[in-house]
Amino acid sequence: MTTQDVEEKYMTLALELAEKGRGKVEPNPMVGAVLVKDGEIMGKGYHQVFGGSHAEIHAINEAGENCKGATLYVSMEPCAHYGKTAPCTDAIIKGGITKVITTVIDPNPVTSGKGIQKLKAAGIEVRIGVMESQAKKLNASFFKLMQKGLPYVIVKWAMSLDGKIATRTGSSKWITSEESRMYVHKIRGQVDGVLVGINTVLRDDPLLTCRYEGGRSPKRIIVDGNASLPLNSRLLNTISESEIIVAVNENAQQNRIERLEQLGCKIIKTRDINGHVNLQALFQRLGEMKLTNILVEGGSRVITSMIEDHLVDKVMVFIAPIIIGGEDAKLPVLGKGIDKINEAVEINEVTIKRFSNDVVVEGVLKYKC
Questions:
Q1: Catalytic residue (choose from 26, 56, 77, 362)
Q2: How far is it, in rounded angstroms, from Cα 174 to Cα 182?
Q3: Residue 325: exposed, middle, or buried by beta-carbon count in 10 A (0-12, 13-18, 19+)?
Q4: How far is it, in rounded angstroms, from Cα 318 to Cα 172?
Q5: What is the rounded distance in angstroms from the CA atom of residue 225 to the CA atom of residue 202?
Q6: How far apart are the first and last CA of the chain?
Q7: Would you tell me the crossing angle of helices 300-308 and 279-288 to the nearest 10 degrees?
C-alpha cells in the first residue's frame, strides 16, 4: 500500500466520522479525527455537538499515552483560538503527536492558517491537501458561510411525472410517498432553518417541524411581505417548539408586526420590492445570525425568485409516478424563463435516490450568468 493509499484510508475514516455531526454542530464545521501509531488506530473521534469537545480532543482522550509519536489525521485544520473550547493545537502539542495530516485550511478568518503555523512552530510535521475536495464538499455550507456570509440553500419540491406540484385547485397532499416525506423530515432535522412563502402557509397551514427520530426542529422562516401570517395558524400555536422568523417588507402594517412580535416571532424587515421581501437582504441577515444551511420548501414564487437571484446552492426534486395534467396546474418554477437551452441552469454532482416508487434527484446548481 502506497503512502497516498494509507493517507486516504485514514482520512476517509475521519470524513465518515465527521459526517456523524451533521445537524448537531452548526454553525461549526463537521470534523473527524483519527490517531494512528505503528499502523494501528489508537484513538478516533468527531465533533459531536456545538459547544462540545472537538474531534481532535475525543481522539486524544481515547488514545491516552499512545498519542506520543502518533500521526493525527483530521478532516480540517485544527483550531488555534479560544472559542467554546480551548485550542486543539495546544492539546496536540501537549500529547506528543509528531505528525498532522489534514485536508484543508479552516476558512474561518479567526483561525485560518494559524493552527498550521502553531503546529509547525512546535516542530510537528504537517501535511495539507489530502482529500481536499471531499472535505470541502462535506462542509460546503460552512465554507459558504465563512467566505460569503450567506447560508447554504437547498430547495426542495415534489412533483408529478409531468412536472406539476399541485392540481389546478391547489391540491398537493400527497404527491409523494410516506417514505419520501420521512426523508424530508430527516433533512429538516439536519438544517438550521426551513423557509416557505406566506402562500404556502395560507394554503397548507404547515408545522414545518422535524418528525424524524433524533432530529432537531429547525427555525421556521416565513417570507411574508405584508405580515399577514394568521394568528390561529399551526405555526404560531407551536412557537414553543422552535423559533419562528417572519420576513416582512418595510411597508408592512406596524400593528401586524407588533402582534407577531408579541406572540414571540422574530421579525426581519427588508426593503420593499414591489410589495415583496428583498430576498438578498433576508439571506444576508440570516447569515449574520449564523444560520449555516436552510431548506426551502416553497412555494413557486419563492423558489423562482431565489433561483433568479442565484441564492440556491442545491436542489432536491422528488418525482412521483403520477400524471396530474392541466394547463392551470401548478408548476415548481415560474418567471420569464430563458430563451435558449444553453442558458439553462445546470445541475452538477447529481445523485439519484429511490423511496418506494418515487425518484429523488439531487444536485448542485451551476449558474450560466
A1: 56
A2: 13
A3: exposed
A4: 13
A5: 13
A6: 45
A7: 80
How long a stretch of residues is the chain?
Answer: 369
The residues, any chain, with a CB within 8 Å of residue 195's CB and separated by 6 or more, are: 221, 222, 223, 294, 295, 296, 297, 302
Please give the Cα distance from 255 to 249 (Å, whole number).
14
Active site residue 19: no
pLDDT in tens, the chain (369 residues): 798 888 899 999 999 999 999 999 999 999 999 999 999 999 999 999 998 999 999 999 999 999 999 999 999 999 987 666 778 999 999 999 999 999 999 999 988 899 999 999 999 999 999 999 999 999 999 999 999 999 999 999 999 999 999 999 888 888 999 999 999 999 999 999 999 999 999 988 999 988 877 778 899 999 999 999 999 999 999 999 999 999 999 999 999 999 999 999 999 999 988 888 999 999 999 999 999 999 999 889 999 999 999 999 999 999 999 999 999 989 989 888 888 888 889 999 999 999 999 999 999 999 876
pLDDT tens track for 17-51? 999 999 999 999 999 999 999 999 999 999 999 98
CA 143, distance to chain mean position in Å, is 11
With contact defined as beta carbons under 8 Å apart, do 320 and 360 qualify? no
CB 250 within 8 A of CB 225: no
Cα angle 172, 173, 179 (rounded to 5 degrees) comes to: 120
Task: Give 231: exposed, middle or buried? Use CB within 10 Å, 0-12, 13-18, 19+.
Answer: exposed
Amino acid identity of residue 266, one-letter, is K
Q: Which residues pair with 294 in a beta bridge?
A: 153, 193
Burial class from Cβ neighbours inside 10 Å (0-12, 13-18, 19+) for residue 95 reads buried
146, amino acid identity: M
Can you read off the three cell numbers belonging to residue 278?
A: 428583498
| Of 273, 187, 186, 184, nearest in space to 226 by CA | 273
Distances (CA, A) of 69 to 158, 198, 296: 53, 59, 48
DSSP 344: S
